[in-house]
Amino acid sequence: MSTPETSRFVRLRVELVLEVDDVEAVTGAALARIAENVADGAMPDTERTHAEGAVTEDTAEALAYLVDPFDLVGDVPGVELQQASWSSELIDYDPDSPDWDLDEDDDDGDDGDDEAADEEGGEEGGEESVR
What one-character DSSP code corresponds to residue 3? Predict the structure, then answer.
């Protein structure tokens, strides 16, 4: 597997369905994360109002501020995160529906671009390139 033709890059797709029991706790944690990001310079103060409004109005947006793909692989030996994108949305979920079969290969040839966040429009999720 270490031949020159083999790519060293791996795309890991993870799909989670979360049940939110306490919207206020999620929103409060997202607001705290935004405040931390502003305080440490990771988010310009000018974006704070927009971000706070987004997480207050939309629980899925609040989760997007709290979930960080780097946390999933940051301690994995031998790998370096090159790029990550994620999105979140409110959904109707029926665990008994065949539409929710996690074993099913749902790769429809999509390159994942629709999962990247639209920074201007404040769409859900986020994208970060790490080097």
Answer: S
Task: Quote the radius of gyration of the chain (alpha carbons, Å).
Answer: 17
Alpha-helix runs per DSSP H in 1-131 = 23-39, 45-57, 59-66, 69-73
Angle CA 76–108–83, to nearest 5: 30
Of the candidates 86, 87, 81, the one whose C-alpha atom is nearest the C-alpha of residue 130 is 81
The confidence score (pLDDT) of residue 123 equals: 39
Cα separation, 119 vs 35, in Å, equals 18
SS (H, E, C) 26-38: HHHHHHHHHHHHH
Give residue limits of the domains in the chain.
Answer: 23-97+119-129
pTM above 0.90, yes or no: no
Tens-digit pLDDT profile for residues 37-68: 999 999 998 899 999 999 999 999 999 989 98
Contacts of 18 (CB under 8 A, 6+ apart): 63
Indicate whether 129 pLDDT > 60.
no
